[in-house]
Amino acid sequence: MTDTAPVIVRTEGHIGRLTLNRPKALNALDLPMIRIMTRALLEWREDAAIAGVVVDAVGEKAFCAGGDILALTGARKNDASTPRDFYAEEYRLNTLIKEYPKPYVAMIDGIVMGGGVGISVHGTRRICGDRTLFAMPETGIGFYPDVGGSYFLPRLEGRLGTWLALTGARLKAADAFAFGIATDYAPSDQHGEILARLVEDTRISEEVVEIIDSLTGVPGPGTVLQYRAQIDKAFGADTVKGILNRLQDDGSDWAQKQIKTLNAKSPTALKVTLRQMHEGENMDFRTCMGMELGLSLKFVAGHDFTEGVRALLVDRDNAPQWQPDRLTGVSDDMVAGYFVPLDETDRLHFLKI
Questions:
Q1: For a tag on the chain, would you pick the N or C end, based on fewer CB atoms within 10 A?
Q2: What does the pLDDT average to over 95-120?
Q3: With 90 as the cut, is the pLDDT of residue 345 above it?
Q4: 318-337 burial, b if ≥16 CB within 10 A, otherwise e?
């Protein structure tokens, strides 16, 4: 690999290193990057000399700001990948990371959203820094929190995951750590030292965890958990309408902000996402990923995803015209249609363990 590759792959000592290398695109994932990462991880999985893997990124602004969405809507005409290619291979990569037999460490200093969450949160350790900014903002573009969001979001404490999924709320380092999304914290200017120590001192897999434990600490207090009781109460409702009603009854400034945020999202995405949270709570990881491939292909084929990308990423008028444009226009049957399993030939097939 050269330093012009979208992912720089190399081994240093007993560490396999993957460095996302599209800083001008905020290291957004495209299909070639997914394939490079998958090939390297499969090779290192069988290599007894590799004790662990570290994933980081070029540039200070972003670890990975998501998937390369423009390629999936046809906004980038020279991209030949299909949505099914992209999502199937991305979800196989997410699963490979979740099931990886060696320590997988993601250094998530900077923006970590969407697809960037999928290549970090399922790993062994996630080290946040001063610049960390986490979000799953998909409902704002007429989509839903994929890349394993069905699995990890419902497993956060209380209804924190449902709140994150529906609102797309952004978390800085302290809150990402408090939520358990990040497992470790170190100031941004110390991440290089952690990486150097991992490369220099790791001989066996157990030492990866020991080195991280010795060099990381706890960030200052966050700001979100003060609203924990309100989040659990409001976002514990069974329907989006019920959530809005509870927020209205709450009456606080915080609750009014949540109402405003939710009212700007795709009504279809909100209703499908809430059901996704309920379904995923009782599914294993692979079942979640299979469900998500079906959801993703249905969303991409629908109106709201293309319209959301147009409004927020292409024309940037921030005025998406959702169809339906109200919650009452999204029937239970419409929501249920998103969860109809794919035909056997279209279903997600996983890599061999």
A1: C
A2: 98
A3: no
A4: eebebebeebeebeeeebee
Q: What is the pLDDT of residues 27-66, one digit of tens each?
A: 999 999 999 999 999 999 999 999 999 999 999 999 999 9
Structural domains counted in the chain? 1
298 token code pair: 């249905």
Active site residue 253: no
Which is it for strands 15-20 and 7-12: parallel, antiparallel or unpaired?
Answer: antiparallel
- Catalytic: 110? no
Query: CB of 11 within 8 A of CB of 54?
Result: no
180 tagged catalytic: no
Judge whether 115 counts as a catalytic residue: yes
**Residue 251 domain boundaries:** 1-353
Give the DSSP letter string of 123-188. SSEEEE-TT-EEE--GGGGT----TTHHHHTTTSSTTHHHHHHHH---EEHHHHHHHTSSSEE--G
Q: Average pLDDT, stretch 296-307?
A: 96
Q: Does the pLDDT value for residue 279 go beyond 70?
A: yes
Quote the mean pLDDT of the chain: 95
Choose the catalytic residue: 56, 90, 109, 138.
138
User: The pTM is what?
Assistant: 0.95
- The residue from 30, 109, 146, 175 that is catalytic is 146
The string of DSSP letters for 8-52 reads: EEEEETTEEEEEE--GGGTT-B-HHHHHHHHHHHHHHHT-TT--E
